[in-house]
Design goal:
Layout (H helix, E strand, L loop, with lengths): L2 H8 L10 E2 L2 E2 L2 H21 L21 E4 L4 H16 L8 E4 L2
């Protein structure tokens, strides 16, 4: 990692000021706890994925940085959609991208 790159990239990021709501209904306490725990893991994974840190980077350099929420949504309803989704997930796993994802959902 290069500390000057971390500082330059994260200089303008600010902590989230309010909780996001869906249809004006606040997230439940359990969902907030789950999301916070997941974002802690995804933050490190995202920074590793884009090459800004490695396993030896002190958490203090990036602990106050807001983590983006990355979600995958898969189309469903057919065998072709299922095969496409599985192929996408397999490729993401091989690239070590799945640890960067906060939510996944399948639609039918």
């Amino acid at each position: 990692y290069k500390e000057e790159h971390l500082n330059e990239i994260f200089e303008n990021l600010h902590p989230q000021e309010n909780v996001r709501t869906i249809n004006k209904i606040p997230l439940s306490g359990d969902e907030i706890k789950s999301k916070e725990a997941r974002l802690k893991r995804t933050k490190k994974a995202i920074l590793k994925f884009i090459g800004l840190i490695d396993d030896n980077t002190p958490e203090g350099l990036y602990k106050d940085i807001e983590t983006p929420v990355i979600s995958f949504c898969f189309s469903g309803g057919s065998y072709r959609a299922m095969v496409s989704s599985i192929g996408f997930l397999k490729s993401c796993h091989e690239m070590k991208l799945l640890d960067c994802v906060t939510y996944m959902i399948g639609l039918s």
